[in-house]
UniProtKB/TrEMBL annotation:
PANTHER family: GLUTAREDOXIN FAMILY MEMBER, GLUTAREDOXIN-3. The lineage of its organism: Eukaryota, Metazoa, Ecdysozoa, Arthropoda, Hexapoda. It comes from the Eukaryota. This is Glutaredoxin 3. The keyword Transport does not apply. GO terms for cellular component: cytosol; nucleus. Keywords: Iron, Iron-sulfur, Metal-binding. InterPro entries: Glutaredoxin, GRX_PICOT-like, Monothiol_GRX-rel, Thioredoxin-like_sf, Thioredoxin_domain. Residues 1-122 form the Thioredoxin domain. GO terms for biological process: intracellular iron ion homeostasis. CDD domains: GRX_PICOT_like, TRX_PICOT. One of its GO terms (molecular function) is iron-sulfur cluster binding. The keyword Metal-binding applies.
């Protein structure tokens, strides 16, 4: 799977409005740094080409398109989903480009994300999705929850949603629960901090957490 080179504005519009997410490299033949990014995209296209399409466009040959997307320097990469720009990387940052391609390529397959979330929620009998981890909670709600759980002496594991945006957003839909922290027992959502506090107040917490 190679990188398509845009020959006309019509072709460009067709490509960015495709079903697949499109990775567009705004480039220039004279800029050596563009070659590094193009090489990286060639490699990414080999294993993500079935989920993403990769396109290059000579920025100076299409000034209206470049102006529309505020291309001030090359290389610039813009990611499009059905014609809408959803992300971008300015300059030579191959690590960031790779990470964003993998993220957008992975999220195309909704089923694989669902399978991953199912596996994560079942990783331990008592699983907590939170900001930070048990040793360093990064919000007040998460900190309160960890204090309550530690007082029960029950074993549990935590997952830091700040390190994984795909899980952070996906879990909200997966469990139909919009906020964090979230507590799961044997793969089933128990709830957030308020519900845990309520269970504790009613002396039902340990029974609920043991499933």
């Amino acid at each position: 799977m190679s990188i398509a080179s845009v020959k006309s504005e019509d072709e460009y519009n067709t490509l960015i409005n495709a079903e697949k997410t499109t990775v567009v490299l705004f480039t220039a033949d004279w800029a050596e740094q563009c070659k590094h990014v193009q090489d990286a995209l060639e490699e990414l296209a080999k294993f993500l080409g079935n989920k993403l399409q990769f396109v290059s466009i000579a920025a100076e040959n299409f000034p209206e398109i470049s102006m529309k997307h505020q291309i001030e320097a090359v290389p610039t990469i813009i990611f499009f989903t059905k014609g809408t720009a959803v992300d971008r990387v300015d300059g030579v940052n191959v690590a960031e480009i790779t990470a964003k391609c993998k993220k957008l390529g992975g999220s195309v397959a909704g089923e694989s994300l669902e399978e991953r979330l199912k596996a994560l929620t079942n990783k331990a009998d008592l699983m907590v999705f939170m900001k930070g981890d048990r040793n360093a909670p990064r919000c007040g709600f998460s900190r309160q929850l960890i204090e309550i759980l530690n007082a029960t002496s029950l074993p549990y594991e935590t997952f830091d949603i700040l390190n994984d945006e795909e899980v952070r957003q996906g879990l909200k839909t997966y469990s139909d629960w919009p906020t964090y922290p979230q507590v799961y027992v044997k793969g089933e959502l128990i709830g957030g901090l308020d519900i845990i506090k309520e269970l504790k107040a009613n002396n039902e917490l340990e029974i609920a957490l043991k499933g």
